[in-house]
Amino acid sequence: MLHAKVLRSPHPHARLLTVDATRARQLPGVHAVITRDDLGGLDAVFGYFIKDQPIVATDKVRHIGDPVAAVAAEDEATALAALALIEVEYEVLAAVPDVESALAAGAPELFSGRKPRGVVPPYGTGASAELWPRPNVCYEFRYETGPDAVWAGCDHVFEDTFVFSRMNHFHLEPFVTVADARGGRIEVWTSTQNPFPLRKEIARVFRTEESAVRVNVPFVGGGFGAKHNCKTEPVAILLSQLAGRPVRYCLTTEEGFLTLSQHSAVMTVKTGLRADGTFVARESTVLLDAGGYTDGSPLVAEKAGYRIPGPYRWEHVRSSCACVMTSTTPAGPFRGFGATQATWASESQIDMIARRLGMDPYELRVRNLKALGEPFMPGESGIDSDLVEGLDLVAAELGYHERGTRPNRGMGLAIGFKDGGGVNKPAQARVKINATGHVFVSAGSVEIGQGISTALCLVAAEVLGLPPERVSYAAVDTDTSPFDQGTNASSGMTVTGRAVQLAAEQARDRILEFAAGRLGCEPADLELVDWGVRQGRTVHPLPPMIAQVFGGTGYEFSGDGFFKAPNSPEAPLDAPCVFWEIGWAGAEVEVDPDTGAVTVLKLVASGDVGRAANRLVVRGQEEGAAVMGYGQALFEEMRFEDGVLVNGEALDYRVPMAEDLPASFVSVSQEQRHGPGPFGSKGAGEGTLVPVAAAIANAVHDATGARITTLPLTPERVHRALRELPGQSS
User: Fold this and answer.
1) CB-based contact 444:563 (threshold 8 Å)
2) d(CA 56, CA 8)
3) Which residues pair with 344 in a beta bridge?
4) Residue 673 is part of a domain; what is its CATH number?
5) Which one of 540, 564, 588 terminates a domain?
6) Model's pTM, two decimal places?
7) What residues are paired with 186 via a beta bridge?
8) What is the pLDDT of residues 9-39, one digit of tens each?
9) Which of 48, 82, 171, 313 pairs with 662 at a CA distance of 20 to 30 A?
């Protein structure tokens, strides 16, 4: 096996004039080198909706860290030595390091002339989108419903702007691929969340059939949305093809910072309401910083634009969300994508409005929350959680209604809201039971630490009446595993879980039909219990029956399942939401008026999982998500100075440590049992991240009267806001 390393651009924006790898190719131990001259015969660009990111740069570099050349050598040290021998000549161009500069009149374009090709997916009522609507904007999503005239009936109209910071996914396992591309076949072992779409993209890039591509996915050490689509795979595959050897390409943590991030955003929200606090209209403009390449930005745009109204009743909604290209690290999906940005703006403004009107923020929310079963938007599915019940639970746990008035201490609430289960996501599954009653669940959901392999096995065990220890989850391999669109949008339990449930039910029915034939009764007279069939009060073991018919070699029963939400032209995103993932958060804080330091005294987070397959796994997911939101609120921020990332390594990038956790941290997993998944379940793992930042900012506002509209809530920002309060000296 060879090892790959990549030469990266030192410039945020530059034209690539010459790349000379002659000396690198001659270095002993080097077996293959990729430059733009080695891309012939390939469709050498990739991306979600827009194909714009090359395997290595061809005409320009568009952010610091953009791959320019790659080397495969016998060890990493030799590969790094070879990179130092590659000579590159750049023509440095003006950078566009942020949204404001990228949208300025006459700003240099990252993609000038003919734009990269792309698609706009089908949308339903009220929704639309456009590719490359204006310079440095690759995609713009729009949604509108209800008459614009209702603004005339508003007694109050408020408009506020919020800034959402950029985070790194910070998955502990890096981006890594081993590729073996010999004999006309491509096989990869890779850290990915969507093996089947990845297989399709690899086949397109390398101009081969999907059947010639095999993607194996072992356990993945975290992804949080980053490990979708091509990352390390194309470089490893092409080097393997050129060298005729397997190649391992593993990024360092620092390279991961240069590969993908969450979107920062600037959001302006205009809200109109009546004098009694009834919401009437909301219009929003969201500008996402997409970075140097589009990656999953269009997906995030449609979610941010669609979710920003929140779980409230409106007579009119209009929103637009634009993906702005900047000469910084590309941005893509991040846990709760779109909802994190939208909720920060929406839930912050709701608190601000309540305080402007002299209302309790809790009361303002309750007055306007949608009811259980009420459609989110026209043509959309109904809300499948009791929103007030969840809010009351968190408020009670926090002691919100009993709070007193103490200097520099305050409490805040927020509700996170997102459509879950993926848009138009299909999933297949297969359940196989051998003669001794051991079960193998096969599906395309990737275990990334969220416990999906455990949950899906528990679903099969429940249906088949077997103890969980008899059930195993098969390795994910695109040659043999049933199709799944990807491990995202908390879809594992509701979409893949339903497919597993249906597969297990089919297998169960076949077993009962077989046993009924042997016992001379109807299948309905039998019940499957611990690999036997109960007939009345008698349990008949299955192994002797199987051996009698099929001999000592035995037999395997199997079932197949498929699930997908139906399409509907009335649904704004072309298919009704599978389920609504909702998180409630409450925070009590104390603010030091001299330093601006925020101490979270108590954090309460809760999500509704419908019904938990494994309560411990659910708790771990919800607490992990809440701590990620806590990091977003107080610590995490990728800091760029003129397009240069200044904290792009583990020691400089500040994440919450154990000593940073609140003195009291409470999570409550609700099981309201309204979910569409197996046995009333819903997805989990994202909802409790989404509202935490707004809840903490709302608590700071309650404690001090100062409103911070930019994340994270650093002591410097809080101190500045305190100094700007009326009556405070600067």
Assistant:
1) no
2) 9
3) none
4) 3.30.365.10
5) 564
6) 0.97
7) 181, 213
8) 999 999 999 999 999 999 999 999 999 999 9
9) 171
